[in-house]
Each structure stands twice: as C-alpha cells, then as structure tokens.
Amino acid sequence: MAFLNLFKKKSSKKKLPELKAQSQNDYDKLTNNNQSISNLHIRLRLAYRAKANIEKTFIDAARSYEIYEKCKIEASLLSDSSLDDIKQPELEDSFKILQSDNGYVVSYIPMDYAKMVFDLGISYQKSKINKDQAKKRVQYVFECICKELNINKDIEILEFLDDISNSDL
C-alpha cells in the first residue's frame, strides 16, 4: 500500500499553523523593513487584511458577549445552574481567516492590538461606549498598524456601524 502513495498527487495546500506563521512573518518583515516603494502593494494588501481582521475581531467580541449575557440570564433563571461555570469571553487568537477573491487567507495583527479591539467590541456591546467612540478608538488602533506598515492612506474602519445606526431609525 505504501507503494501507491508515491503516485498520489501531493497537495500544495498549507496547513493552518503554517499559514499563520507565514502571515505573521509577512507582517513582521514589512514592519521592520517598510521603506521600500516596491513593496507598497504588499503593505496595502496587509493593511486591508488588518482592517478586515479588526472588524471581524470587533464583531466576534460583540457577539461573544451577547451570547455570554444570554447564558448568564438563562443560568440565573434555572435555580440549579451555577453562574461560576460561565466564563466571560476572551480573545483566543489574533489571526483571522478571511475570504478573498483567490480563496481564503490568514490575516495577522499583533495580539496587543487585537486585544484592544476585542475589549472595545465588548464595551460597545455593553453600551459603555457609543458608536462614535467605538469608531474613533478602533480607528486609532488601525492607524497604529498603518503607521507600522508605513501606509499614509486614509482608510475608514467600522463603517458598518453607520449602516446599523441608520437602519435603526
């Protein structure tokens, strides 16, 4: 049987851990050597991936907190359930899988930035900050990433919050 394995086409697809490592290496390389004009298109691509990563992280945080709150309410209504078993959502990873025109890609942002965005998403869901505060603070995080990537282009983030607010009217 081992002989037949020689004739199988080897898959060129990388495993998720390899894609994560490559994504982080690309980010680290470009933030350490970002002066070249020739890699502008690559830096812009990473900036747009970071934007999508940040927006997904924000949404994931808000959804996770919403589910957490529902579970807490349900547990409190059931007298035999313990609230201690329900853990508040935490950021597990600063990588996000994104869908692109060419399939799926892995986007990386540094964990410190991802944690800030995650916490802002939870604060927004808790109504501790409003839409404008959330947009302003997350925009600041994104601009820090753009500065590291040496991107001087204005790219707005969390535009969907405007769409949500307008549909509520």
Q: Could you explain how this protein is built, in words?
A:
It is a single chain. It is built from 6 helices and 2 strands. The protein is mostly helical and 169 residues long. It has one domain (15-30, 40-151). A hairpin with a 2-residue loop joins strand 1 and strand 2. Residues 1-11 have low confidence and may be disordered.
Q: Count structural domains.
A: 1
Q: Which ranges are low-confidence, i.e. pLDDT below 50, for 5 or more consecutive residues?
A: 1-11
Count of distinct strands: 2
Side by side, the strands of the main sheet go: 1-2
Helix content: 55-70%
> Mean pLDDT score, rounded?
86
Order of helices and strands: HHHEEHHH
Instruction: Give the count of helical stretches.
Output: 6
- Describe the largest sheet: 2 strands, antiparallel
What is the straight-line distance between the termini?
66 Å
Radius of gyration: 20 Å
| Beta-strand residue fraction | 5-15%
User: Based on CA inertia axes, which overall geometry fits?
Assistant: globular
Structural class: mainly alpha
In summary, what is this structure?
By secondary structure, this protein is mostly helical.
Secondary structure: elements and pairs:
Blueprint: H1 2-5, H2 16-32, H3 40-77, E1 95-100, E2 103-108, H4 111-125, H5 131-148, H6 160-168
Antiparallel strand pairs: 1-2
Key words describing this protein structure:
single chain, 169 residues, mainly alpha, two-stranded antiparallel sheet, 6 helices, 60% helix, 7% strand, disordered N terminus
